[in-house]
User: Which sequence fits this backbone?
């Protein structure tokens, strides 16, 4: 467990390093290919930071409202509240707020960028279908996201993606409507090649950025699995819960594309056609295998 | 002159390191104290819940009254005595509670009682919170001891007399269930 935790921490640090290097290359190329490219980057950075600030300070409220989560009360959900409180003690974090999401699918998520103001939400389906150990495993996974500051990590990753996406978007649009010059004056032909390379860069960069971000997201899931297992000292609990989740066919109406990456397992049950490269969560079977070998 | 600058820089880095390492040790030591009090909070919570349980069960149970008197006796040991004695009494209470809940299986009316159900959930919740609080205590002790034993922080710990802390262990004799006579 300890080695699994530190290896995942290192891998996400390396991924962020790769992200920053990629950002550097992107900015350098934009400046090379386009006249006054930095203006666009500064503009995109401002927009991305505004978005990030909104999600940093009120993202949890937005997400909870979007999934129709209701605050749990001591009368109906005493067991859930006790489980969350116990595991928060084990994790050494302040008691998070506890919410219940309507719906029969087994799922859960954590939100809030600060441990002091974090929330955990669990579906009604999870409360009905999971036994004590399995629920503890799921809750421990979610509390680990809070403890590891994963929500903050993903906000940071979104800023980086945002800068690249916004820059590309604005520049491509201004291309379409003309009026973009190149800072190269060597003549028509090389100018054209420059522009073609530039457009390819603008089309590819957002996709690459997204792939790196999703790779970070998957690493944080593995990390939360491992640190969750360390909290309950019983990796089998979460492994069994993931097995039940895998075989659970019910749909979660409260989830949308915007919030799917937050859940313990992707709320969309249909197999997506695109490769695992674009998945926010690692393969469930792989997660179960790793948990069972701990 | 150059040499003097270098020496000053090295001394500056050293002082900075000592400050950081010292503060880190303080943080870790305070965390242990805080987690000790967490255990106490949960023990207190259980202490408060037990009379309610006894009152609820008393009305239903006819034969197994000794379990209840045993529990009352153990509860009184929780307030007095050292932490070690408290820990011992606490473990015995855990076992006594288990036998009360086992006894309750024979009384369908008691099992259906809303108050009893609520108390059972609360007590088992508190039970696992005590276990988790101990676990967090031991985790905190481990990271503190790691810091004290590891190089180079061990030199700082030696200079400022940070001593290793002991883990919260359950004695072998306490692991055995206590016998409850019916």
Assistant:
């Amino acid at each position: 467990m300890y080695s699994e935790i530190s290896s995942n921490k290192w891998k996400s640090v390396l991924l962020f390093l790769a992200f920053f290097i990629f950002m550097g290359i992107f900015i350098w190329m934009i400046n090379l290919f386009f006249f006054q490219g930095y203006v666009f980057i500064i503009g995109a950075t401002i927009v991305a930071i505004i978005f990030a600030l909104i999600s940093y300070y009120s993202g949890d409220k937005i997400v909870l409202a979007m999934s129709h989560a209701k605050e749990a009360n001591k009368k109906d959900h005493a067991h859930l509240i006790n489980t969350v409180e116990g595991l928060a003690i084990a994790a050494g974090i302040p008691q998070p707020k506890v919410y219940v999401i309507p719906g029969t699918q087994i799922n859960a998520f954590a939100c809030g960028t600060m441990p002091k103001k974090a929330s955990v939400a669990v579906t009604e389906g999870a409360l009905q279908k999971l036994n004590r150990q399995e629920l503890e495993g799921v809750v421990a996974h979610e509390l680990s996201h809070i403890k590891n500051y994963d929500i903050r990590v993903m906000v940071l990753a979104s800023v980086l993606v945002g800068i690249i996406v916004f820059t590309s978007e604005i520049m491509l649009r201004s291309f379409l409507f003309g009026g973009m010059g190149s800072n190269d004056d060597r003549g028509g032909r090389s100018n054209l090649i420059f522009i073609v390379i530039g457009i390819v860069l603008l089309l590819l960069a957002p996709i690459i950025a997204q792939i790196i971000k999703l790779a970070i997201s998957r690493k944080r899931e593995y990390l939360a699995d491992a640190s969750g297992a360390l909290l309950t000292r019983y990796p089998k609990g979460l492994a069994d819960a993931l097995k039940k989740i895998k075989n659970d066919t019910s749909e979660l109406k409260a989830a949308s594309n915007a919030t799917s990456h937050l859940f313990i397992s992707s709320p969309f049950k249909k197999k997506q056609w695109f490769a695992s490269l674009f998945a926010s969560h690692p393969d469930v079977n792989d997660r179960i295998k790793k948990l069972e070998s701990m | 002159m150059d040499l003097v600058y270098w020496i000053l820089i090295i001394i500056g880095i050293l002082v900075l390191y000592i400050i950081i390492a010292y503060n880190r040790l303080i943080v870790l030591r305070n965390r242990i104290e805080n987690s000790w009090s967490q255990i106490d909070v949960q023990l207190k919570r259980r202490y408060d819940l037990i009379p309610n349980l006894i009152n609820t069960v008393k009305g239903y149970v006819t034969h197994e009254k000794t379990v209840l008197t045993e529990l009352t006796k153990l509860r009184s040991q929780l307030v007095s005595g050292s932490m070690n004695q408290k820990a011992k009494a606490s473990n015995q209470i855990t076992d006594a509670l288990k036998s009360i809940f086992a006894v309750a299986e024979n009384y369908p009316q008691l099992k259906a009682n809303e108050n009893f159900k609520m108390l059972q959930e609360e007590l088992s919740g508190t039970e696992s919170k005590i276990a988790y609080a101990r676990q967090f205590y031991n985790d905190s002790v481990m990271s503190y001891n790691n810091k004290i034993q590891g190089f180079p922080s061990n030199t700082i710990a030696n200079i400022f007399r940070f001593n290793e802390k002991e883990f919260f262990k359950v004695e072998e004799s306490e692991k055995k269930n206590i016998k409850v006579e019916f």
